[in-house]
Amino acid sequence: MILKLDGIPPEGLNVDVELAPDSSEVTPFNVSGPVVGSFRIDRLGPQILVRGVVHGYVFQDCSRCLKRYLHEVREKFSLNLRSLSLVPEGEELELGADDLDVEFFQGDALDLAHLLAEQLSLALSMKPLCSEECGGLCPLCGLDRTEGKCSCREERIDPRWKALRALKQNKKE
Asked: Are the CB atoms for 135 and 128 separated by under 8 Å?
């Protein structure tokens, strides 16, 4: 959904966006059902303030046990957008501390579908867990430690590290 900037009234604008699971913006995230966003868009002089909520369900693989699970995403966000047309062409732009939370855009329109997909991406965990109690997989036998305890000895070390262990033991003696 494209929003023309001159279509934003002085009192601001509320916009709801829904992306189908097969839309090109969200297919990389393996969503289950639509991704919905509610935006509040205000013009603050040359800047655009976008606040809102992104909501959807994403299939993820647990980083400990590798099981696929359905994760609900519900995340509030706030974006301060500034047009690149405000930057003089050919001049180098030096960013200050105030510019670290500013995102730049080009043209006279905002792609709200792209903003929604971007916020969905930022809301996803870099290390997804199916639950905080997930025990992960045993590195030796592969048993899911959440389902039960395996008979592997925990002190078993990789044979490639035996030489270093021998050095450590010699140093102690």
From this structure: no
Q: Which of 104, 116, 63, 53 is nearest to 80 (CA)?
A: 104
| Alpha-carbon radius of gyration of the chain | 24
Query: What are the C-alpha distances in Å from 30 to residues 25, 35, 109, 114?
Result: 11, 11, 28, 16
| pLDDT score of 14 more than 70 | yes
> What pTM value is reported for the model?
0.77
Whether the per-residue pLDDT at 87 is higher than 70: the answer is no
Q: Tell me if 109 sits within 8 A of 4, measured CB to CB.
A: yes
Per the CB < 8 A criterion, the answer to whether 54 and 123 are in contact is yes
The tokens describing 58, both together, are 């994403």
Q: Do 81 and 110 form a contact (C-beta atoms < 8 A)?
A: yes
Mean pLDDT for the stretch of residues 10-36: 94
